[in-house]
Amino acid sequence: MTATEEKEYSLEKCKTKQEAILETASRVLSVLFHPFLVPLYAYILMFTLTYLYIMPIQYVAFVMSIVITFTILSPLLFISLYKWLNKLSLKDLSDRPRRFIPYILTLMSYATCLITMYKMYFPHYFSSIIMGITLCLGVCLLLNLRWRISIHLAGCGMAVGALIAYSVLFNFNPVWWLCGFILLSGIQGTARISFHQHTLLEVILGFMPGMFCGVIGILFI
């Protein structure tokens, strides 16, 4: 092997290693910042960064159980059942035409959660998180008629928007948390573009509605 071939082989090996690291990071971020986990993170931050940390642990556990049931367990159960009945793989569900049913099933779960919170007279700052995400899902459903937008970036946008909104409501400084969320959103978006899972437009069309729905749903609805 000549010196030139050795250099090319070394560069190719280094490139392959970098791609493997980026792919692993993308998979980890996709799991950690899955859209279904955004409400859970939002409530955790609300119970830790605001004066709500004084709430009794029993009440916190009660609220979190409702959130986990309707925003994580219920959508996952319905979507898994839909995949099993139609013998679909995860890759099949990523096709734009097949994303409508999972969107609708998720919307139904969030709407049920919202109705439950209203029936139980939850404070507005609790139900507004679910309202914002439900609004975001509706916008994503409409955008999916034309583009296969990134729902992961919509979740990242929701997290950023919710943080901005609650910093206004509860008067705390969100700068460092905001910087962290924006950085992670950028890493997530870059990874999904690099591996051809989405285009730049689809990433932007996911993040921006998510952020605006987070702010509008919490502060103005």
What does the secondary structure layout of this molecule look like, with pairings?
Blueprint: H1 3-32, H2 38-49, H3 57-86, H4 90-93, H5 100-119, H6 124-143, H7 151-170, H8 175-194, H9 200-219
Helix pairs in contact: 1-8, 2-3, 2-7, 3-5, 5-6, 6-7, 6-9, 7-8, 7-9, 8-9
Poorly predicted segments: 5-9
**How would a crystallographer describe the biggest sheet?**
none
- Coarse structural class: mainly alpha
Rough outline: globular
Task: Report the helical percentage.
Answer: over 70%
Question: How many strands?
Answer: 0
Q: Estimate the mean pLDDT confidence.
A: 82
Report the β-strand fraction as a percent range. Answer: under 5%
What count of helical segments does DSSP give? 9
Order of helices and strands: HHHHHHHHH
CA-to-CA gap between the ends?
A: 68 Å
Radius of gyration: 20 Å
